[in-house]
Amino acid sequence: MNLREEIINDILKSLNNEVSKEDVVVESPKERSFGDYAVPCFVFAKKLRKSPIAIAEDIKNNLDESKYEKVEVVSGYLNFFVKKEDLTKYVINKINEEKENYGKSNIGENKTAVIDYSAPNIAKPFGVGHLRSTAIGQAIKNILEKNSYNTVGINHLGDWGTQFGKMICAYKKWGNEEAIRKEPIKELLALYIKFHEEAEKEPSLEDEGRAYFKALENGDEEALMLWKWFRDESLKEFQKTYDLLGISKFDSYNGEAFYLDKMDGVIEELKEKNLLKKDQGAYVVDLEDMPPALIMKKDGATLYMTRDLAAAFYRKKTYNFDEAVYVIGNEQSLHLKQLKAVINKMGHDFANNMHHVNFGMVLQDGKKMSTRKGKTVKLHDVLVEAKDMAKTYIKNADSVDVEEVSRQVGIGAVIYNDLKNYRTNDIEFKLEDVLRFEGETGPYIQYTYARIMSLLKNNELKDIDFEKVEINSYIWNLVFKLYEFNDIIVKAKLGYDPSLLAKYVMDLAQEFNKFYGNCKINDGDDNEKAFKLKVSNSVAIVLKEGLRLLNIDAPEKM
């Protein structure tokens, strides 16, 4: 059942197809008293040479109004009121039959999407700044799967570049092997910070760092050994954070270094197509309406662009993707535009299916966190603190696994705090705000789910005679919200926007709590009680599935 489509088709039929499907906009009124759906007729006026009110009246007169509870004309709008009993029966039965499969769409059937997300830098702490890419990326991956896409999650590790020459240089000058083996990330970060402090006093250090990176690119045995050691230790540390976040593994951990032997083919193709130009000793690709893309430095060293080009071609060849999603910060917008432009210029149209899902920065005191200055907050520390704080909110400590439930609640709070914001906005990082457990928070939704599970624990779900139930405004608002789940799943995918889903589950939880506070479950006859319980169960199913898609757990007891 697709009510929007039905309304569109009814309007086209009423107007004898004198307007196009694209002209018909089906809106959701802010006030439900104005209707469940509203269609503005102003857009039809120019084509039909009539006033919007006259057009609305014509449509109403030609409609089969028996399909709706009622249709009203108000100031050039057509307001549609859906038949409550029909939709309620359809929604409640469908959810209880399909359970977690409810809301699944088939728009991605037989299609593959690769999602590039998280991508922390090796030899550096997994900072709070990387939460955004990780949380948004995992939610988008889940939402794509809900829309029937086959997905490939790629953790494109930052494991190559000049910074690793600097890291090796710092280790050779001041490093202590025993200290690094004991606390690798802490010690490597200290070395990285020291390098930049010393380089401010002695600029020649920057040249030494670049020389070590060139040695690394040339396959120097010692440099490669140190690089691999830094990488292996970093991955072990990162996995501790992923475990807390409930991300067991990625489909690929191929970082920048993986593409070192795959760049030559791209560079050769650029040369063959006369796209590679020499500019002050470096090699670039000229682009329209944006700066040229730098492919190779004058010393022959490669750059992010070279490796990202190789990665795009490798992913297309390996996975034959229909969509490639890059969950990367706003500051990389030009880089992604250049990447797509170069591939397009090479004559490969798959660039049109590469999407930059950009997001804002995590700020501290209004400024970007900087690893080189030591102004970063470890995400692992934040998650552990959130988990510990959550223990104080667990009311059923004697009957639950406190460690696991506190992880679910604490980490859920951090993830929801991120995902409820539209992704392109910058977020000011304040630990006390992230860990707040009142208001529009993840724990509020989790508590709502646990409340329903407690309600259902000692009550058996029974069949209902829908013709004999009373559908009051609280129940109707809940039913209609449940019906909208499928629309939200599709919209969240089309806009790569998990915040739509985050707001939806919050709205659903709030609607349930209004229902719970105003409609006593045990009031009424057996059929009425069974109906309220089945509505409650439907809400629980959708809340749990909505949270799962956001990568948030739904504990049954708290």
Q: How would you summarize the topology of this molecule?
A:
Blueprint: H1 3-14, E1 37-40, H2 45-48, H3 52-62, E2 70-74, E3 77-81, H4 84-98, E4 112-116, H5 129-146, E5 150-154, H6 162-174, H7 177-182, H8 184-201, H9 204-217, H10 221-245, H11 263-272, E6 276-279, E7 282-285, E8 293-296, H12 304-319, E9 323-327, H13 333-345, E10 354-357, E11 362-364, E12 367-368, H14 379-390, H15 402-419, E13 427-428, H16 431-434, H17 442-457, H18 473-483, H19 485-494, H20 498-518, H21 526-549
Parallel strand pairs: 4-5, 4-9, 9-10, 11-13
Antiparallel strand pairs: 1-3, 2-3, 6-7, 7-8, 11-12
Helix pairs in contact: 4-18, 5-19, 6-8, 6-9, 9-10, 10-14, 11-12, 14-15, 17-20, 17-21, 18-20, 18-21, 19-20, 20-21
Protein described:
This protein has 558 residues and is of the alpha/beta class. Among the domains are: 80 residues, Arginyl tRNA synthetase N-terminal domain (Gyrase A, domain 2, 2-Layer Sandwich), CATH 3.30.1360; 255 residues, HUPs (Rossmann fold, 3-Layer(aba) Sandwich). Helices cover 52% and strands 9% of the residues. It has a 4-stranded parallel sheet. The chain has a 3-stranded antiparallel sheet with strand order 1-3-2, covered by helices on one side. The longest helix has 25 residues. The model has no long low-confidence stretch (mean pLDDT 92).
